[in-house]
Amino acid sequence: MALGTVRLAMTAKQTAYVVSALRANAATVRTMVDNEVRCSWPGGSKNLVMGQNLYAGTGKAPQWEDAWIVTKFLLHPGVAATAQCTTYARVASLYKQRSSVKIVGGSLRFADTSVANAANGKALEYDIPYGDLPVNRTHRTIWQPAMPKTVAPAGLRELSAFGDVDYQVCQRGAKCDKNGSSTARFTLIVNQWNAKGTKICHTDATKSVTRTIPYWVHHAVVPLYTPHFKVSKAAGCGPVFNAYVRVDWLRGQTGAVQGTAVGLPDRRGSASKHRSAMSHVYIVPA
User: Fold this and answer.
1) Residue-wise pLDDT tens digits, 113-148
2) Least buried of 6, 90, 272, 280, by fewest C-beta within 10 Å?
3) How many Cβ atoms from other residues are within 10 Å of residue 155's Cβ?
4) Calpha distance 260→43 (Å, rounded)
5) Closest residue by Cα to residue 65 from 18, 101, 37, 34
6) Taking a C-beta distance cutoff of 8 angstroms, is the pair 281, 163 a contact?
7) What is the pTM (predicted TM-score) of this model?
8) CA Rg, the chain, in Å?
9) First to last CA, the chain
């Protein structure tokens, strides 16, 4: 279901910051609600989807019955073109009977139309490719999504880093307690390196966030944010940066950081399909 569309005429060097927010509640039965943004321009496209399963609106578990789902990313077509971005609510009943859910708020906008790029002219971002990355009692920590060391433009004063993780409970193929949950700790880490990228000269991390996701919620968004990372001008520091999310499994069911989703129908009943990125990390310089 399309909820809104925005358009922007862009140059070949331009990067924009896309933000879509969607609030859903009052589901009649447990219902999947995903906020997908699909952007396209002549000859190209970029899609990203985040979401969770929403409990029926009974008032017994309010934190899982009413949710704001925010999908945000950098858009860099790399060509001079008009980009069109549309927000879609991907909604599906998780029972045999039909469900309904209320979309009670939301917005879609270009929060910034002139985000600085890396020195190579590309956006400072990384999306996990297809494949879910598990964490459990035998493989307790992963460092994903992870933007590799990248050279940024000289002269930056500070930057803000974002890491958005779609965390899945009970990865496919794992034995699961359907009455259980998965608890993990999430930390976004930003590093500045020397000019050769061989030694860290400055680092910072968000305050860690611990989330417990019930089995029936299945997947939920964990947004992380490190604002105002001061770029060091000290000797031995270069304009080289990387950022990643450290995910530490703590207890419960096997969890997974979700990579790019594939085979998504273009619309209900459609035979044509597409893929959408999920967990990702990106940097907005200042």
Assistant:
1) 999 999 999 999 999 999 999 999 999 999 999 999
2) 272
3) 10
4) 21
5) 101
6) yes
7) 0.95
8) 19
9) 36
Burial string for 196-225 (b: 16+ CB within 10 Å, else e) reads ebeeebbeeebeeeebebbbebbbbbbebe
Residues 6+ apart with CB under 8 A from 208: 185, 186, 187
- Residue 50's contacts (CB-CB under 8 Å, 6 or more residues apart) are 34, 35, 69, 70, 71, 164, 166, 221, 278
Provide mean pLDDT across the span 22-50: 97
Looking at the DSSP assignment, which residues form a beta bridge with residue 203?
Answer: 191
Strand 240-252 and strand 181-193: the pairing is antiparallel
Give, for 7, the enclosing helix (H) or strand (E).
Answer: strand 2-10
Tokens 């000269």 belong to residue: 201
Instruction: Tell me how crowded residue 160 is: count the other CB atoms within 10 A of its CB.
Output: 15
Q: How far apart are CA 157 and CA 160, in angstroms?
A: 11
Question: Which pLDDT tens digit goes with each residue over 234-271?
Answer: 999 999 999 999 999 999 999 999 999 999 999 888 88
